[in-house]
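Two quick folds needed for the group meeting slides. Do the first one here.
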Amino acid sequence: MELKSTNISFTNMVSVDERLTYKQHPQDPEKTVLTQEAIITVKAVSLSSYLEGLMASSISSNANKGREAMEWVIHKLNTKIEDLAVSARGSIRTPMAAAAALVEKK
């Protein structure tokens, strides 16, 4: 899957074209490889290289925050799923133990 975005504000001064590509990991189908790239073009400004560097740093920092947020959500979901599985296993065992006790009394 590929996602593309472009800024819509200040386009007369700067353009940021970003592309995110999600692919299945070649060795582990349970994992996803995310590739993120951004092209920054500063227009008609004497400090263009300075602004490009500043924006690249900001985009990189935000990309790391986004990745960390996704990993946090995935971890929380996995924890909830495991809690539900443990709870379900416990719910099944309780009636089975009661049934076994009834059989033993007979």
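Then this one, please, same format:
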Amino acid sequence: MRDMIDRLQEGAFKVSEQAQRLVRAELALAQAEVKAKAQQAAPGIGLIVFAGALALLALFAIMISIIWAIANLVPLWAAALITAVGFLVLAALCGLVGKTILQKVGPPTPDTAIGIAKGTPAEFGFGTDGRTEEL
């Protein structure tokens, strides 16, 4: 009887140890997956930030164009306005490319780890609703 209790305790310890190892492995997988998605999204985020900076430069150019147009009414304002429009076009292109990259990457969710975690209860003999399956 004592031998059976010792074997049960040893088995329970092994199951607990394996469960801890499984949880650590799933957390590491989720972390690696989120990190990989974040690295894929970085260029898109960078281009969107750059587009915002270019748009700010365009606003300054437009402001200067309006000031020069009103103050001088000379062709100098046209050159500043063309520069502003050029910045806006570049900002729009960067924003669209960045948005496309971000849409392609998708949200930074660990899809693989979630899929594995959803399948784990079935591997331990539990149904998808959490109840033990009948043998």
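Slide caption for protein two: The chain has a mean pLDDT of 79.
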